[in-house]
Amino acid sequence: MSDSASLEVWLRGPVPGVPSMLQPVAHALLQAREELAGAFADFPPTLLNERPEAVASVGFHLQHLAGVLDRTFTYARGEALTPAQQAQLAKETQPLPTDAETLEQLQQRFNQQVDRALAQLRTTDFADLTELRGVGRAQVPSTVIGLLVHAAEHTTRHLGQLLVTAKWVRSQA
Question: In terms of Cα–Cα distance, which of 64, 73, 70 is closest to 91?
Fold first, then answer.
C-alpha cells in the first residue's frame, strides 16, 4: 500500500467538513497548493517577471491564482468585488519586485486564499448550489456551483501554465 502523502489529494479521501458535491473543488485547490509549494523550493525570484516568447510571467500566474480564487468565491457568496479586489486585479499584470520576500509573500497569499476557499466550501449549503449569481460589472449569469467549479478549473489551468513557464525560464537562465 502507498504512503497516503505520496498520493494525489483526491485519492486521500474526503476533505473534512466539505460537502460531498464540493469535494472535487477542495481536492483541486489542495493539489494546486502542494504542487505550487514543490515548484518554488528553489525557484530564483529574479525570474518572476520573465516572459519568454511573450507568455504570461510566473509572477502574473502567482498573483492571478490567488486573485481568481478571491474573486470567484466572492461572486459565489453573491457579493460584488470591493475596491481593494478591483485594485488587486489591475495590479496582476504589473511587474513585481524580484526578491525572495516577494516570492514568499505571493505563495503565502495563495495558501491563505486556499484556506479561505476551503472554509467557504465547508459552509456552503447544498441547497444553494444552483442559485444564480452575477459575475462582474455586467452581472453575467452563473450559479454557485458554476463559480466554485470554475475557480478550481481556472486554478489548475493557471498552475499548469505557471509550472511550464517556471521550467522554461529556469532552463534559459
Answer: 64
